[in-house]
Amino acid sequence: MLRRILSEFAGTWFMVAVGCGSIALGAPGWLISLAFGAAVTIAILIFQPISGAHINPAVSIAFTRSGHLEKEALGPYIGAQLTGALAAAWMLDGIGPTQLADDVNMLQGTAIEVFITFVLMASIYWIVVKSETHVSIAFFVGATVALLAYFFGPLTGASMNPARTFGPNLVSGMASSLLFYSFTTVAGALLAAEIYVRRYASKKTIRIER
User: Fold this and answer.
1) Which of 12, 35, 198, 208 is the Cys-Cys partner for 22 at CB 3.0 to 4.6 Å?
2) Cβ pair 112, 155 in contact under 8 A
3) Which fold is adopted by the domain 2-199?
4) Helix (H, G, I), strand (E, B) or coil at 93
5) Residue 131 and residue 111: Cα distance in Å, rounded?
């Protein structure tokens, strides 16, 4: 279990350091999207054989619901992910919070975050059913993250990940929005999990080290 927890910590740290680091450096939107997508791809390539490379509490919660992650591992996974994200955010200088654009209201933001996290989680389930290698999973999920971040980042920050928001928002003093992003991302992921459980649960499971 310790190797898996360290894997989730390191993978989430890397994702936040690279993705949010590109924001702190003032990179254009398309490059920020590529940074997040590339970071997710690399994290999955390195850490998926160890822990599954969830690097996202919403993914871990959904995987627990669908039987891909044992219930007793959920707490340690989420703790490692949040700690990794916070460590990365503290390391970055001038990092800003994840927040809604000025012209996006709470209802619109809720719909967007639930939708894009649902799409991300559904794409993960889809590639898990279709693919036999973690390499194809890594590139597919990374590309999905990059595309969703590119199109929806200007509207809501395209969180899709409570940990990715937890670290930067806590460090930048915007903790008030954490409940919103946690609820919407987990809701979207669980919606995808429910559909998977009802239709595809018997077809494929993700093997991770015990």
Assistant:
1) 35
2) yes
3) Glycerol uptake facilitator protein (1.20.1080)
4) coil
5) 30
